[in-house]
Amino acid sequence: MMESYFAKTLAGLEAYLEEELRELGAKEVLAEVRGVTFKADTETIYRIHLCSRLTIRVLKDLTTFFAKDPTDLYQKAIRYNWKKIIDVDGTFAIGAVTTGEYFQHSKYASLKLKDAIADHFRMKKGRRPNIDVKNPDVQLHLHIRDRQVTIAQDLTGESLHHRGYRPKNARAPLNEILAAGMLKIAEWDSQNDFLDPMCGSGTLLLEALHMSANVPSQWKRDHFAFMNDVDFEEELWEKVRKVAEAKFIEPRVRFFASDLDFAAIVQLKSSIKELPFKANVEVKTGNFFELEAPGAPRFIIMNPPYGERIQTEGDIMDLYIEIGNELKLKYSGSTAWMISSDLKALKRVGLKPEKRVPLKNGQLDCRFVGFNLFKGKRKDQLQNQGE
Predict the structure, then answer these.
(1) Which residues pair with 255 in a beta bridge?
(2) CA 173, CA 144: separation in Å to the nearest integer?
């Protein structure tokens, strides 16, 4: 049976998530602000949780109605058949967001919904499920805009940006979903050797490795919130997993990464050892400006330092000038992408971007820019292509 859902993602990735969800079997897909609405059957929901690289979490629409005040909210919510969602011996929690003049206190609205659920079970079963704000079996989301009330169930639990391929307490300054989105925007197709010369703990490299090997983003995860549902279909879940695992392949291209941070490289090497496939990967501690020029074009992607991580404006400007010079000198014929929140510094790279995409890295407004590194003069190359 097809039901309605909302998949959350990062700002700027909505259209790419829309495309990805269609590929995974979702129907009536429509990009919204920071997410995508869609319809899907149970098998597709399982596949999205296992395979989506751009989804933060999936919310299932339970009910929508209009309420004039908290009492009206309670009276309408108590009528919903909550036993479909929550077991009387289970636990639940409620997160609430309210806007408008009719519901000005989100905590009070959440309390009225909690009372409605508890009283529903008392009338039907003589007892009620408990609240557990830290680790509930069912997490509910209450959203009220003016008088419109929407109640949804979180099917995901822990955010899907947690891939499980890092050691515990590992450093990861670049969100995994952002990294996957950058690779989608850059149209990484596993055809040229991959290079991240400022890799840090290797988020971009690890996401590229998983993409090139058809490995699902959540292949190491063994529990999602939907598995707490009273109607969870374990056999169907195992089928979805087996179909995905049968598509694993060995990457055909080589992968290179380097960084000056020795600890980050050690962490990255540890993550690579956990991969469920073999790949030609070379990772080392080193300076981008000391790498040897490759003999063939490469797909280059990097997250260089921004002004927030360098003390003086002069230092950041000099760094980006050097990056541009290095790309022009050693990597002609390649494609290069970089993300930065320092728009002035990006201009100092000295290359004309083929594409600019606004993204957010945490709270920072960034630009993700792509360059085609032509051999010789750019205008001559474009003229030859036109001829």
Answers:
(1) 194, 281
(2) 33
* pTM score of the predicted model: 0.90
Amino acid (1-letter code) at residue 65: F
Q: Which amino acid is at 179?
A: A
The residue ranking higher by pLDDT, 170 or 305, is 305
Q: What is the mean pLDDT of residues 347-352?
A: 94
| CA count, 13 A, side-chain hemisphere, 325 | 8
- CB-CB contact of 257 with 301 (8 Å): no
Distances (CA, A) of 284 to 34, 164, 168, 279, 331: 36, 22, 22, 16, 19
Domains of the chain (ranges, CATH numbers) = 3-154 (3.30.2130.30), 176-214+225-386 (3.40.50.150)
DSSP 254: E
76-121 confidence digits (pLDDT tens): 999 999 998 999 999 999 999 999 888 989 999 999 999 999 999 9
Residue type for position 365: D
d(CA 316, CA 322): 10
SS3 call for 32: strand
pLDDT value at residue 170:
65
Amino acid identity of residue 44, one-letter, is T
Between CA 213 and CA 279 the distance in angstroms is 9
CA angle 135, 161, 189 (to 5 degrees): 155
Question: What are the C-alpha distances in Å from 8 to residues 13, 28, 156?
Answer: 10, 16, 11
Strands (E), the chain: 3-8, 27-32, 35-40, 57-66, 91-99, 130-131, 138-145, 148-154, 193-196, 254-259, 280-285, 298-302, 335-340, 355-361, 364-372
How far apart (Å, rounded) are the C-alpha atoms in residues 171 and 176? Answer: 12
Rounded (10°) angle between helices 14-23 and 176-185: 80
Dist CA 151 CA 120 (whole Å): 16
The owner of tokens 């499980």 is: 164
Residues 6+ apart with CB under 8 A from 31: 14, 15, 17, 18
3-class SS at 225?
helix
Which residue in the block uniquely carries the two structure tokens 């001559």? 380
User: In the predicted model, is pLDDT for residue 307 greater than 80?
Assistant: no
Which residues have CB under 8 Å from 322's CB, separation 6+? 289
At position 93, the amino acid (one-letter code) is A
